[in-house]
Amino acid sequence: MPAVLEIEGLRKTYKSRRRGERHALDGFDMRVDAGQVHGFLGPNGSGKTTTLRTLLGLIRADGGRMALLGKEVPAALPEVAGQVGAIVESPQFFPHFSARDTLSLLAGAGEVPRQRVDEVLELVGLRDRAGERVKTYSLGMKQRLAVASALLKNPKLLILDEPANGLDPGGIREMRTLMRDLAAAGMTVVLSSHILGEIQLICDSVTIISLGRRVAFGPVDEVLARYSGGSVRVRLEAVTDLPPAADALRRAGVQVTAYDDHLMLAGVDKPANVTRLLAESGLYVSELAPVTADLESVFLELTATAPVPGQHRQVDESRKVGGGSAGGWGA
Ligand SMILES: Nc1ncnc2c1ncn2[C@@H]1O[C@H](COP(=O)(O)OP(=O)(O)OP(=O)(O)O)[C@@H](O)[C@H]1O
Questions:
Q1: Per residue in 287-297, pLDDT tens?
Q2: Please, which pLDDT band fits residue 328 given cuts at 50, 70 and 90?
Q3: Nearest-CA neighbor of 298 among 199, 224, 230?
Q4: Rounded distance, CA 298 to CA 300, Å?
């Protein structure tokens, strides 16, 4: 499958007199194949918008290479721009224009046939409100207009930064169907979003970025399988047995996360060893269940952004975590 978007070793450092240097992208890699819906995920401040802005020529990279539709950018941007539709950050519209006027203006500037305006209004569900002024629109309606503007030129590659922002549950579901339909029709779609359940439902593949570096990538199923490796939920007959059980397992080298009524273990190859080890300490297991991770828990683990009771995590406190689940206990 040809790559529609390729990034290798991308670097971007913001410099300011007051704050010094900030490495927003620190050798970032990304690849999106044709016809995929690809999720681009990362905590706040991890470098997603910087990546998209660099790719679209809005800011200059300090190093690395990028290609869109097989052409090196930024050099080939004039050639490929007509085939790439993008919304990065909230686009601004003239408040006194209607959605139809806004799209007609953009269509005229981009030599897009007028009938396409009605097509995209229909696609994003704005047909019946298209004559009203944008200043009377809700956040979700403005978001739909933004997606419509990105779709006007029927691009080969559609890049959407937080497309579900402000949409109601019905709107999110419609957006999901629209993305899938566009991909089925051959468009490649890159979505950045913090709604991970949604990404898991919509996307074929994902890239996860943390502190300006890629920490995971690949088909969603493979990423989930890779990072679910050996996760096991354990309940004991008495909850008072959980702390000594956690201690015994940790002493044996198992990664243990303790919850009120159960333990989560990572990297367990042979669950029977857990039962045996606990029984040897006089602790009896009432449930031992393998757990498949969802995208949210993989994301929280890889970007180290899971909430810690009693702490207020600051935006730059995510840390780089090596690939694969640590531990490997249970031989
Ligand atoms: N113009 C700028 N000047 C200085 N620092 C910047 C600038 N733009 C972004 N940064 C910094 O670069 C880092 C990456 O920011 P970026 O906007 O790319 O993150 P993001 O992943 O899009 O975050 P979010 O999910 O919050 O939108 C952050 O630490 C941010 O503060």
A1: 998 887 788 88
A2: very low
A3: 224
A4: 6
pLDDT per residue over 226-259, tens digit each?
A: 777 678 899 998 999 999 999 999 999 888 988 8
- Do 161 and 308 lie in a common domain? no
The angle, 0 to 180 degrees and rounded to 10, between the axes of the packed helices 295-303 and 220-228 is 60
Print the domain residue range for 97.
Answer: 3-225
Query: Measured in angstroms, how far is the CA atom of residue 129 from the centroid of ligand 1?
Result: 34
Residues 215 and 268 in one domain: no
For ligand 1, the distance from its centroid to the CA atom of residue 24, given in whole angstroms, is: 7
What interhelical angle do 115-123 and 99-109 show, nearest 10? 130
The Å distance, Cα 272 to ligand 1 centre, comes to: 46
ipTM (interface predicted TM): 0.97
Task: Report residues whose beta carbon is within 6 angstroms of any ligand 1 atom.
Answer: 14, 16, 22, 24, 42, 44-50
